[in-house]
């Protein structure tokens, strides 16, 4: 697998090595030893999540706080999304900065979203199945979030406003400024 830096420390793009033959393809979608050796990060994932969404859905921006913080290794099983990670680690030189990367079933890219980041994605294809590993369990009481369209963050979700589909929960998230 190849590792590509994003400019945000510890937030990396992973390109798996794919073996193709007459039957189709094979790749290791996660190998703890290879992951840890190549990235220098911990691969102690304890929960897998999967979601299905239609075009225009924007999920995020989400995180869990304190001892419940989660790192996520995210990828797309079907379709294409624009995946977004925002550094909200106190004292980080890139605090408030975000990266976005297109993840698809076709490019098979994965994004490692470190603990202390907000995470979200928008669906660019007709539908998308999204899969991610988490290194800490879901804890409802620790959920925190920032509005997807926060002006200070300035994320371009590549979805026209008239087509954006947001959950009721995500329409009442905080501003980025209120996190400080
Ligand atoms: C995230 C999560 C949700 N749930 C439940 C709570 C709720 O009833 C239902 C749907 O939850 P949500 O609306 O929060 O799902 P969703 O908006 O897809 O939330 C996810 O968004 C992406 C961007 C992330 O980064 C994830 O960490 C997570 O926050 O599933 C769990 O049981 N376990 C979980 O780990």
From TrEMBL:
Q: Which reaction does it catalyse?
A: dTDP-4-dehydro-6-deoxy-alpha-D-glucose = dTDP-4-dehydro-beta-L-rhamnose
Gene3D superfamilies the UniProt entry points to: Jelly Rolls
For this UniProt record, the keywords arranged alphabetically read as follows:
Isomerase
A GO MF label: dTDP-4-dehydrorhamnose 3,5-epimerase activity
Which SUPFAM superfamilies does the entry link to? RmlC-like cupins (SSF51182)
The pathway is: Carbohydrate biosynthesis; dTDP-L-rhamnose biosynthesis
One record GO biological process: polysaccharide biosynthetic process
Does the keyword field hold Isomerase? Answer: yes
The EC code for this enzyme is: 5.1.3.13
Any single Gene Ontology cellular-component annotation = cytosol
Sum up the protein's function in the record's words.
Catalyzes the epimerization of the C3' and C5'positions of dTDP-6-deoxy-D-xylo-4-hexulose, forming dTDP-6-deoxy-L-lyxo-4-hexulose.
Q: How does it assemble?
A: Homodimer.
What family name appears in the similarity comment?
Answer: Belongs to the dTDP-4-dehydrorhamnose 3,5-epimerase family.
Q: What is this protein called?
A: dTDP-4-dehydrorhamnose 3,5-epimerase
Whose protein is this, by species? Answer: Pedobacter jejuensis
